[in-house]
Protein 1
Amino acid sequence: MLLKLCLLALFGIAMAHLEGVVVVYLRKALGMLDSESNKESLEKLTRQYLGIEMTREAATIIMLVVIAYLVGDSWLEKGIYFLWTFAFWDLFYYLSLYILIKWPPTFKTIDVLFLIPVPWIAPVWFPIGVSSLTIITIAILYLLQII
């Protein structure tokens, strides 16, 4: 299980960087300043591009579900692997954006977390905190040999 967790973490980190790069390009294409909140990006997206963005988000979740399904043996493992990979993807997405464009400038910066089914808007500290707690919890459960 340790090897799977390490490889899934690596997968999540690589996926996060790829998505971060896409978001950097999207922000530049929309003419957004690097310091702007992603909440303002919703106002700049046309209905067509909002739909395209939603398909990108759906594709991201599908990739995370599929990799967890392929790697896990039981439904419990599949769920753990999904949450683990999701947490690494989410955490390193923000780290990637910060390395690339120094965004978000603070943990209080408001972000659009998801668009599906409706926009989820919250400060950046929230997904960072949830992802960090998820990684820590799964690591502790693994070390205690509960999972």
Protein 2
Amino acid sequence: MITVQIASKTRETTDICLLELSTPEGGVLPAFSAGAHIDLQLPGGIVRQYSLCNSPAENHRYQIAVLRDPDSRGGSAAIHSQLKEGDKVSISEPRNLFPLEHGANKYLLIAGGIGITPILCMAERLHHLNKAFELHYCTRTPEETAFRQRIQDSSFGDNVYFHHSRHADGKRMDADAVLTTAETGTHLYICGPNQFMNSVLKIARKHGWPESRLHREYFAAEEISHESDTAFEILIASSGAVIEIPADRTVLEVLLEHDIDLPFACEEGVCGTCATRLLEGEPDHRDVFMTPEEHAANEEIAVCCSRARSKRLVLDI
């Protein structure tokens, strides 16, 4: 973990605050690429992931924007109400599970609400590389549009289209029109609320977009019913130990109780930190960070949330 200081805390919208993080000594921070995020350790031991939204060319600061979630489990509420300028916090080095494919002919960037954070970083990087792209940014009103002025003042502002669903002069994005007019070889990058992303991705697939050109990042996992969950076994490949996973416990929880130390962060299948190599068995994938192809390959499992369809899973631990 890295100790950083909150150099500034400002308000982007009524419900979104922007934190600028730097080293207490003003030194250089680890490099990052567009789409990267950091783990932020909050009061009470809470750890949350936030996308970096400043230019990857900057090495003196990280910027994150945080939406106050009315259903917060403690993360966004703590940031909005407890953290202040000058406070020191611990963060991880940046990790990227949402990287740009630099060989694409063109890029279609779509952001819904707070999903603008990694998308804005991508736009700045693509502009720096002189790559062809357009950005569609969907919010309810101009007042709820974070970074609106920053985007309008940028040198790539002409590439950006704002869509406001609850404004007198605005209208929702016509996803059909946007996705049918995209040039061959265009890659789609989308981030925002789950329902918004799933709707856009469904339309993209309807128009024949291959999965290899669809890139997404979820901020939260889908709600899943646990009524039909059953017990199963985990076999540890290195020792041969067999561990029972009860119907009401996760693999991660039980393995940690058995002193099997695995990295983890979000505990809901979003960040990919706990992904563990799977050697045998049929998993019930419940994460949202892996692609459908990766799920079908059954080479890894997110032990924080996924379960088993077979009686036993063999993990490469």
Protein 3
Amino acid sequence: MPTNRSDDYAAFDVVVVPFPYADRLIEKRRPAIVVSIPELASEYGLAWLAMVTSADNRRWECDIVVADLKAAGLPAPSLVRPAKIATVDVARIVRRIGALGERDRNGLAERMRSFLG
């Protein structure tokens, strides 16, 4: 894995990472959304990531449709699945491919706040 500077990633960046599955003992390289602040990375070398999945998959009530695919750097219709969060070492992030547009950021932030109660 390439070594990344811990301050290279901001909240709502779209990155490629080997994303761990909670229900399987595998990882798959896929896009994910950074949902933590850079200070988590600089202090602990970690990032919190929300899973991105194809819009063709069965939709969950909490999913956020990515409206601005171009800004996000995503090649196909996609959903952010904020119920599936992973903590990863920033050194495992392969690269940044884009960032969520403002509308998508607002929707994801609102959904994440609802999970916090």
Protein 4
Amino acid sequence: MWQQVGATEYLIAGLAIWLAILSIFLFKTISHYRKLTKGVKGQTLDKVLEEIIDKLNLHDQQKQQLIKHIQKLEDWQKICFSKHALAKSSGRTSFKAPPRFPMGVRTASTMTVVISSLHSRGGTRVYAKGVFGAKPTTHPFSKEEKEVVEKAARQV
């Protein structure tokens, strides 16, 4: 009979320990649930989680819109002026050879334009020449224009 009482006591002690462990886990789960639903009145955890998922979906949509907008900006940046150079021709100040100020401007792609201005007593003339790949597309370059294009092409 002592063995039966000892086995029963072991069984009751084991069940008490098991019940204590389960109670601890239950209290932790309940406190975690209350933290999740803190400040939310009249809603269940399911509703709170659905709202969180909706917010995540909204954030994903906004992120995709931002990615598209950034791509458009990057596309625009490719055609904006990114490299430039300016040079003044040296020593030519007589009426027959007015000073020349060529300016080369490059975009992020290979399109380029060279703008030259000729200043004289009678006025100022401005010329633009198209450039593709550091070579003129229509008219040949003057010495200064060629220097400016090469200078702009060397910029990083």
